[in-house]
Amino acid sequence: MTPRHSFTIPKLIAPYPVLIHPGRAAAHRLLVEWKARYGLTAEPGQEEAVYDFSGLVASIYPLGDDAERLAHTAQSTHFTEVLDDHFIERPIRDGQLHIATDHALRMVEITEDPFAEITEDIPLYHALADLCRRMVTLAGWEQLERWASGMWGFSFGVLVEMAYTTTRTLPGAAAYGPLRERTTGFYPWFNDQMIGFVAGRHIPAEVLAQPAVRTMRKLSSKIIGYYNDISAFNAEPQPEQAMALPAVLARAHNCSLQDGLEQAAEHWYDLVAELTIATDRAGHSENEHIRFLGLASRHMVAGFVHWGDNLTQRYASTDSNRWTDTQHDEVVYRQ
Fold it and tell me: Domain of life here (predicted)?
């Protein structure tokens, strides 16, 4: 398997310990079964061997011991991968904006009322309804409401991204930061959306709204999003037009894409340093939930880097990535 391009990708190292959730093996089995049940891939076991989404969630959400909640999160992560790569990005790149918009809005609608009848013969819609219904069973309606709110934020970011993609422009460096926070698939799940959910901990809304927690949310989302941008850059079909930090910085500073990669890596390390300071402060908070979120934020970042470097082949080549996988096309473009 060979990359599309030959840029030198800077090494990104997270200075935090990596832990693995004890329910990883069970989550893997339940994820493969769930994929097969909803027909989300022709070869569930083979795809999981390439992507390892169960390894991803076990690495980024290691706190807790409930395998069922971890499996639900792995299933949710796979759902977002299919939604983002195939139901949104692919039609956008084909100039079919209305298709991407329709799917994004329909998904949000399902999260808001997952027990309503779904008349469309689109497996991903039914898979999402299943995730939402089981979330209510596992953690209650408030948990689902938080996830639905996160899905709105994610969908908003994706729809804003469309405006740039369709006009073949890129946002400025300042605008790209808050946009990337929302277009990473982790936006719907930070803090109690999934960190608390997996750990079996209910984090009050008044805690999630505090500036210290918002800062950790923003930094973690950017660090994870930028790791993707940098590490996957050789897989981009048109790197100079890529909605990715290296291309944004190269255009903003009128430099080469390789220089953009180096600048992106420097910025990534600056954000990690900021997160270290923010989580150190959280660790000294009188509020136990903030202390927990500080620790969880470090594990989330460290786990994602561990997954990207050691567990997944998702961005390794053009043979097994989102740009060449056509298995969902017939459903995505169905009118």
Answer: Bacteria
Q: Indicate left, alpha or beta for 5 from its phi (over 0: left) and psi (-120 to 50: alpha).
A: beta
| AA identity, residue 61 | Y
What is the count of structural domains for the chain? 1
Assess if residue 189 is contained within a domain.
yes
Q: Give me the domain span that covers residue 289.
A: 24-324
Q: What pLDDT shows up at residue 1? A: 45
Predicted confidence at residue 28, as pLDDT, reads: 95
List Cα–Cα distances, 268 to 37, 117, 158, 275, in angstroms: 39, 44, 22, 11
User: Do residues 68 and 54 make contact, with C-beta atoms less than 8 angstroms apart?
Assistant: no
Whether the Cβ atoms of residue 57 and residue 73 lie closer than 8 Å to each other: yes
Amino acid 1 reads M
Is residue 12, in this structure, part of any structural domain at all? no
Distances (CA, A) of 31 to 78, 107, 284, 300: 9, 20, 37, 20
Residue with tokens 């799917």: 103
Residue 256's CATH number: 1.10.600.10
Please give the residue that has the higher pLDDT: either 143 or 322: 143
Q: Where are the alpha helices (DSSP H) in the chain?
A: 24-37, 44-51, 53-60, 67-82, 90-93, 97-112, 123-139, 141-166, 173-183, 195-199, 205-208, 211-231, 245-253, 257-283, 288-306, 329-332
225 is a domain residue: yes
Token match 């953690």: residue? 139
